[in-house]
Amino acid sequence: MQQPIQNTTLSPGEVRKRVQMRTGERGDVRVAPSRFPSLGYYYWFLGNHEHTEILPHAKPIVRYAGPTTRAVRRTFADAGFIPGPKNCKKFNVCWGSPKGIGFYATLMPGQVCNQMPGSNAMGRKDKLSEYIVAAQSRVGRDIYGFVPKTYILPQACDIAARDMSSNPGVFYIYKPALGARGEGIRLLSAGDTVPNDKPAVLQQYISDPLLVNGFKFDLRIYVLITSTDPLIFYIYNEGLGRFATRRYRAPTLKNKNLKRMHLTNFSINATSDTFVNPDSGKQSAVKKKSAIQEKVERIRQIIDDPQGIPDTDKSDSSYASDGDDGADQNDDECLFENFPSKWKASELFQYLDQHWEYFDNDDPQCVTRGAGTPGNGVVQQRIFDGICDVIIKTIIACEPNFYSLGHRARTATAYPRLNFGIYGVDIMLRRNGSPVLIEVNSSPATGTSTRLDIDIKYPLIAEALNTIGIPVEKRTEFDIITPTTLSEEEKRVRSVRERNQFLQMRAKTAGDAISGRTPLRPSRNNLDRDLYLSAGTVPNLQYALNGSEPPTPVSQASSERPITSASVTRGSICSDERLPFNELPFGTTQQSFHVEDFILVDRQGNVRYALPSDATLQFSELERRICMQISDEAPRCGSFIRLFPTRNSATYMQYFEHRRYNTVLAMAYVCSGEAWRDLL
């Protein structure tokens, strides 16, 4: 059982300090030691500064690949990061929208991107539906019954039209596959034409949503994926509750175009004059549309549905005299000044735990059945457990895509980790409290239009970066905190030599594509020529591409530092002090055991996962690094709660399409107690 969402984020003082920093102002560069001395240090972001040290003269670089928000920029500035030029190749962190496989394949040790190969597909509504349908056919519709009936368009356009005509009283919601912020969403019913001109999904409208004070709402839950092989992901200990700004009524032909009644998207409701600001408690729009935006939206509405009525104040008023089918003029007044349109998920859960009158208590499956008395925490725990169940099953359904593209991009098993992903999972609750998956956002909004957003999203970004761990270049255990004594010329020479060695290792495994039949040809594009040019020399391509050792001048060899005992660890490839990030390149796939060695079946047929005795002594370097990552992230994850792998999530292993060796190993390690000291 997972712990319920609690309001345990970082202190308001720490968040306030960041918000008040002036543009261009940078904080100190702080580093925190890894639990494993051989892994060195990580850059430390907003949070507890205990056990961290200031790294003087360090200038880590962040590359912004696309539009960014103040929350993102201030998080990096507070940690001492410097924005790099557009399309720069020398960076520590790349923050932006999803990229192509070619970009991920160019990431070097010490570089981290906030997107993972395959994340864009999970954010597409049609692709996500395909993954869910595949999981339903594999393990059963009852296991994956948390999504409404869905038609994937345009493939199922004829089937959807036939079902709509045979069910005249049922409404459906149309969503473009690549839509965002509620754009292009509309309600359809019998007699409406099903669009077939672009990828989209058509879902049966949820007819029994849970209402609070008569208003529809959904939950934005944040998920962090730090690895895809093995699969490792977390849930954030805080989220958002987003309310519609018009009192809910069952959809009819007259009110089906009222977006602020049927949709809970913040971008739609934030422009409403009846939006109750959570900061002031007063009705006021936190976003204003420009005249051009209003004209564009009106044109889009006319093009998409010539018979429809735009969701504007003028069109809304035309329904005021239509009885129950329209919107009562006093409806908006029911969103009291003390009832904001946006909540913290923790506060909303506590509110629902105390107010059972909103639930359908007669439903045998209601979360209030047998829960005792209101306010005892049982209901919010059941709701949270249901949400965790939906998230775990959803990511497992998408795992084959993450695995395939991660290996094609050659990042899936590279250490230190080159990718992570923050995802926004939108959940709606039915009247019995059961969760329904609405969609997954591969690039959730980090804008902070309210103080509530600041309190949630600033710590969210910082703690995600702390969890994944942005590695600091590994020298020795002493000069990681003090400035190096090498001259600038010696540092440039050393940088070139270290990068050369990595390129040699990458070139040796350049033909090991995932299929084994489509080798990846090394090319000049794999070399960071800008880095070498800035270092004063360009390496000989024949050495970098054929894997041979380039000759080292005596003057350069004399500047090498001896390898100390502190930098030598068990294993092979990671013990060389010349590898600046203790890297383990992609392609290291030695397996010391078989999958069956980690699986135990008792007399009752129950499956358990455990490591064989003294397994850590037989681990290959890759197996050690997998287990080290799990235990190394634990003290840094802050308000993130690991959902998988855990002892409680071991039962979900049966839902995977394939039993991946690394994922089974990770589960066995966790179920065996995470004896991380055996890995030192």
Automatic annotation (TrEMBL):
Keywords noted in UniProt: ATP-binding, Ligase, Nucleotide-binding
Looking at the record's lineage, which domain of life comes first? Eukaryota
* Occurrences of domain ATP-grasp (ranges): 421-469
Task: Enumerate composition-biased segments (Acidic residues).
Answer: 322-331
Q: Name one GO biological process term.
A: microtubule cytoskeleton organization
Region named Disordered: 303-331, 547-569
Which GO MF terms does the UniProt record name?
ATP binding; metal ion binding; tubulin binding; tubulin-glutamic acid ligase activity
Keyword Transferase on entry: no
Q: Pfam families, per this entry?
A: TTL (PF03133)
Q: Name one GO cellular component term.
A: ciliary basal body
- The annotated regions of Polar residues compositional bias extend over 554-569
Reaction equation(s) it catalyzes: L-glutamyl-[protein] + L-glutamate + ATP = gamma-L-glutamyl-L-glutamyl-[protein] + ADP + phosphate + H(+)
Q: Which PANTHER family match?
A: TUBULIN POLYGLUTAMYLASE, TUBULIN POLYGLUTAMYLASE TTLL5
Name this polypeptide is given: Tubulin--tyrosine ligase-like protein 5
Identify the species of origin.
Giardia muris
